[in-house]
Amino acid sequence: MIGIIGLSHKSAPVNIREKFALNQDDSAKLAKLICHNKYIQELVILSTCNRTELYFKADECCSSGAFNIIISFLHKHVGVDDELNKHFYRYAHDKAVNHLFRVVSSLESMVLGEYQIVSQIKEAFNQAEQNGTVGKVLTRLFHKALETGKLVRSNTKMSTGAFSVSYAAVEKCNNQFKNLKDKNILLIGAGETGELVIKNLYKKGCKNITVTNRTITKAEELAKRYSGKTLPYNQMMEGIHEAEIIVSSIATKEPIFNAATVKPHLNGHPLVMMIDLGVPRNIHHDVADIPGIALVNVDDLEEVVSGNQEKKQALVSVAEEIIAEKVGEFSDWLNSRNLSPAIQQIIASMNMVNTTELELFKKFHSDEDYQQMEKYGKHITEKLINSMIKNLKTISDNGRQTEYIKVVNDLFSQINEQ
């Protein structure tokens, strides 16, 4: 079976999502642990600011059993108990495939048409390849997903005027300040999200931009592209003293500052916007209690982007038709792959039984009787084979319930060995 277990901005707020946010090292360790389980053959972990999802292939195990294996490993890895299970969704078979195709097509994103999810999925799959946790099935699945996403974008223009979370952050600033161009801006983090923020600020005419990052060379490269300046990461608080807009988007397990550490460095600006695009959150929520500070996290930006979504809703039905067709194509391939060995076992076994019995019959009967029995035996064998294949497809949900296929394979392999 193919399954997915995960949570997203639709099922869990940021204070829950951040508990399950996984960096590359976390993902690699967890994936290898899970794949040591004999029932889980393949695994890809996708972890972004808006979702953490585990895509897997399991054999010789029912859906509920596979889900329990995955969630128990995940909970143990992040150190939480079962009470957070209510935030997770679980999909199996075609529903899991459909979900991935929707995700890569940005239909499940906070922002319809945003393109960042494509690079995030590519990165998650590439990491799984490096970790050795993918095989033929998930490789085919993710290649088909990326193909589907590309087809959706080219046929719906879904990404035209895409309204990213980073752009929404800039719009939030634009709504708060009359003279955005004149504001001093501190960007903490030089990754993809950080660059999207500075790019959109630059388009708004902002020139007073400072970039700080753990790796100073990355900060310098980013600042140079947009006529900004850099600040060493260990001097961040000096940047906070000057800034009226602070945007943070770095990977961290704990907040990089809180109310106690920020207060001494504020210089009396009537309003300071702090936009936290990190999951886990970069800025402790108690900063919002400081007078004159407006703190915004990724979930707060949803209201900004919602107004731009309505005009794209008409494109969703077109996208869903494309996705449904591609899910069908993948399902046909997978079912054929799953059922083919069992079907071959059935055919070989029944033909072997028929041949053996005919040879025995021939020893004690005339050639005429043998020819009649040969015709009848062929007729009965074909009828039994067709009936067994039909029942196999029914009981295995047309190849989706692989645990039943395994039983048939084992049963008929025993017959062939006799």
UniProtKB/TrEMBL annotation:
Q: Where does NADP(+) bind?
A: 189-194
Superkingdom: Bacteria
Q: Which GO terms describe its biological process?
A: protoporphyrinogen IX biosynthetic process from glutamate
Residues in domain Glutamyl-tRNA reductase N-terminal? 5-156
A single GO molecular function, which one? NADP binding
Q: Which Pfam families match?
A: GlutR_dimer, GlutR_N, Shikimate_DH
**Database matches in Gene3D superfamilies:** Glutamyl-tRNA reductase, N-terminal domain (3.30.460.30), NAD(P)-binding Rossmann-like Domain (3.40.50.720)
Catalytic activity reads: (S)-4-amino-5-oxopentanoate + tRNA(Glu) + NADP(+) = L-glutamyl-tRNA(Glu) + NADPH + H(+)
Q: Where is this site: Important for activity?
A: 99
Give the annotated active site.
49 (nucleophile)
The entry's keywords: NADP, Oxidoreductase, Porphyrin biosynthesis
> What EC class is this?
oxidoreductase
Q: Which InterPro entries match?
A: 4pyrrol_synth_GluRdtase, 4pyrrol_synth_GluRdtase_dimer, 4pyrrol_synth_GluRdtase_N, GluRdtase_CS, GluRdtase_dimer_dom_sf, GluRdtase_N_sf, NAD(P)-bd_dom_sf, Shikm_DH/Glu-tRNA_Rdtase
Residue intervals of the Tetrapyrrole biosynthesis glutamyl-tRNA reductase dimerisation domain = 319-413
What's this protein's function?
Catalyzes the NADPH-dependent reduction of glutamyl-tRNA(Glu) to glutamate 1-semialdehyde (GSA).
The record's note on its domains:
Possesses an unusual extended V-shaped dimeric structure with each monomer consisting of three distinct domains arranged along a curved 'spinal' alpha-helix. The N-terminal catalytic domain specifically recognizes the glutamate moiety of the substrate. The second domain is the NADPH-binding domain, and the third C-terminal domain is responsible for dimerization.
Under the subunit heading, UniProt states: Homodimer.
Q: Family per UniProt? A: Belongs to the glutamyl-tRNA reductase family.
Q: What is this protein called?
A: Glutamyl-tRNA reductase
Q: Write down the species.
A: Mangrovibacterium diazotrophicum
